[in-house]
Design a protein that fits this description.
Helices cover about 60% and strands about 0% of the residues. It has about 120 residues and is mainly alpha-helical.
């Protein structure tokens, strides 16, 4: 099952995650690699919790984000495009396609990226 990404306005907690990711990664593809710690090309609720803990968000904010982005359901996952829709404000399609290409290239060097956190 996949989580639901949407265009609705994001909560303060999701905006905090966006800002924190933007401060420590080059692009959303790199942020996805840092979040997808097991390398299965999806992000689970536990992956998001680990990321948010590393970014310094308190557990209550972590749970709020997990619920808001639809990962609180059993088996829910985000793929790269859903992650991008949620954590990149209004990405143009050309940027989405470019980020996917950068993600594929970056994945080959993911051990260097994950060490940034």
């Amino acid at each position: 099952a996949t989580a639901q990404g949407g265009a609705r306005s994001a909560s303060r907690e999701v905006e905090e995650v966006r800002a924190a990711l933007a401060a420590v990664t080059l692009d959303v593809g790199e942020a996805f690699i840092c979040t997808d710690l097991d390398g299965n090309d999806t992000v689970s609720a536990n992956d998001m919790r680990r990321l948010m803990a590393r970014l310094g968000l308190p557990p209550s904010s972590q749970e709020a984000v997990v619920r808001e982005i639809g990962l609180s359901r059993t088996g829910a996952m985000l793929d790269l495009s859903e992650f991008m829709r949620l954590f990149t404000p209004n990405p143009p399609i050309r940027d989405l396609q470019a980020a996917v290409r950068r993600y594929e290239l970056s994945k080959m060097h993911s051990s260097k990226i994950v060490r940034k956190f």
